[in-house]
Amino acid sequence: ARRREREREKKRVKSFQMKLHTSSRQVLAPKGNAARQTSQAAIRSPRNFNTSLSASVSCSKSMSMSLNTSRKNQAARGPSSSRGHVVSPVNAIAKEVMLAEAPERLCREEDKGMREKFEKSIREAQNQICKAISDVDGTAFHEDTWTREGGGGGISRVLSEGNVWEKAGVNVSVVYGSMPPEAYRAATGVDKSGLDPTDRVPFFAAGISSVMHPRNPFAPTMHFNYRYFETDSWNGVPSQWWFGGGTDITPSYVDEDDMKHFHGTYKSVCDKHDPEYYKKFKEWCDDYFVIKHRKETRGLGGIFFDDLNNKDPDTIFEFSKECMNSVVPSYLPLVEKHMNDEFTQENKEWQQIRRGRYVEFNLVYDRGTTFGLKTGGRIESILMSLPLSARWEYDHEPEEGSEEAKLLKYTRNSATWV
Known about the structure:
Blueprint: H1 2-28, H2 32-40, H3 46-57, H4 69-72, E1 80-82, E2 85-87, E3 96-99, H5 113-137, E4 142-148, E5 153-160, E6 165-179, H6 181-188, E7 201-214, E8 221-231, E9 241-250, H7 256-273, H8 277-288, E10 290-291, E11 296-297, E12 302-308, H9 313-325, H10 327-338, H11 345-364, H12 367-374, H13 379-382, H14 403-412
Antiparallel strand pairs: 1-2, 3-4, 4-5, 5-6, 6-7, 7-8, 8-9, 9-12, 10-11
Helix pairs in contact: 3-12, 5-9, 5-10, 7-9, 7-10
């Protein structure tokens, strides 16, 4: 009886394995409508698509956008064309064509106005910031440049194993793509009946992104990204546009004067353009950069904004441009102040632990990074934001009253610096 029971169990296991194998083949190699649905699911809603497409093209956060649930779950319905240029339905991004040097422009020749102006501003900012960093470090940036069929492309600049920075990167990207009408409605709030659900809405996105990890544990890490998104006029619906971005600081040790300088610089920029900006954008930043499983923030904040289109576009452009131009004066003095500070092995290990937190946020929660990894983008650019090294210690908690514990207090309780 036991032998017969064992034989029946073997048959049940074998039957289950055959069903599992068949199901796996169907998932890995779907046919007909299933194949189209599987491939099309790679293209998401416009904000998520815009966010992650740019992240895949040039950087992990260049297009990091705030998304609601409906936007996250939007799926594209098939291959598309934008002004006659084909967009891949599988990876959502055409394969890059590497160049020996950067072209004069990444925008299409016919693009003028804000598209052309924003690309010019982010490329000028890239040049300015990279020069300022190289002048302090004494090391040049490595550059990779590429374009994509149908327009757009990117420029990645990375400094690695420098004298002051272990790793610093500044990337720009220009992206052309398309989205389904349903995703367009979710993104813009514009509704129009009678539209073909298989139609496509062409869009343009451009952005700059940077992360800098210094060697000295007392010098803070800094991140910023600024971006512009615009749809083409389509089926009687006018073009839609918005700006997003922000700059934030991530120290391993808290220097109150440093934080007052950094936050004070961006408060001055915000107050110049709108007295409500700083409070609103600082809270937005604190809310976004939360490592939920740790119940602490990645760093000590800054500003973060998205979907900004409530004023004249040129007015918001000037605000975005001034934020970009404030990266060097807000950050570089802090690094110059601390780059030669003496530190111990324990200080370095704490810095590595905090960089572990940085990695956790970027790979688990950052929408640009996580989606970018799924859409077939340029991996080296997507992971540019990660430090060269990081550390994880089991159940590590700093000694009460220590400088390390002081940092944790601020990451668990938002502070008002200015």
